[in-house]
């Protein structure tokens, strides 16, 4: 039966792809933890801290900025915004600060991870401010 893939070959391919994704996710989580440590470092520039606050909130919050039930866009934050945000934040931080933060993050026990609900509050605040701005805009249009 030449030309057909065996079930074992297909399963091995999926397993390799899944392991690769798991490895990338672990690395991304470790980088996010290092960013949290870099945020607290006084050598991190103020503009990087502002951007970091948004990236950390998006990464660690149990509430998504774009809810997953919205078709296609719902996974946009998980698949694109978070990795791109982390990559941009890393570029804003001095290399020596990031190296030290990575080393400290690697030595942190897993239980020392940031509390997700604190960051969920920031995401909720962003949504509330966005909704208030939209509401205000609609009121101004109606009053004209």
Explain this structure.
- This protein has 144 residues and is an all-alpha fold.
- It has one domain.
- Helix content is 74%, strand content 0%.
- The chain contains 5 helices and no strands.
- Helix 1 packs across helix 4 and helix 2 crosses helix 5.
- The radius of gyration is 20 Å and the shape is flat.
- The mean pLDDT is 80.
Radius of gyration, taken over Cα atoms and rounded to an integer in Å = 20 Å
Q: Based on Cα principal axes, name the global outline.
A: flat
Number of strands: 0
Number of helices: 5
Spell out the key features of this protein.
144 residues, mainly alpha, 74% helix
Blueprint of the fold:
Elements: H1 7-40, H2 46-60, H3 76-92, H4 95-107, H5 116-143
Helix pairs in contact: 1-2, 1-3, 1-4, 2-3, 2-5
Briefly characterize the structure.
The protein has one domain (7-143). It contains 5 helices and no strands.
């Amino acid at each position: 039966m030449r030309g057909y893939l065996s079930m074992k070959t297909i399963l091995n391919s999926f397993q390799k792809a899944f392991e690769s994704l798991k490895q990338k996710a672990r690395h991304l989580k470790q980088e996010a933890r290092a960013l949290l440590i870099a945020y607290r470092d006084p050598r991190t520039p103020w503009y990087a801290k502002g951007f970091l606050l948004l990236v950390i909130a998006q990464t660690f919050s149990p509430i998504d900025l774009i809810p997953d039930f919205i078709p296609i866009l719902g996974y946009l934050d998980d698949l694109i915004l978070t990795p791109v945000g982390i990559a941009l934040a890393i570029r804003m931080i001095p290399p020596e600060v990031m190296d030290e933060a990575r080393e400290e993050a690697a030595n942190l026990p897993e239980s020392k991870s940031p509390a997700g609900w604190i960051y969920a509050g920031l995401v909720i605040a962003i949504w509330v401010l966005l909704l208030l701005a939209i509401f205000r805009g609609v009121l101004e249009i109606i009053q004209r």
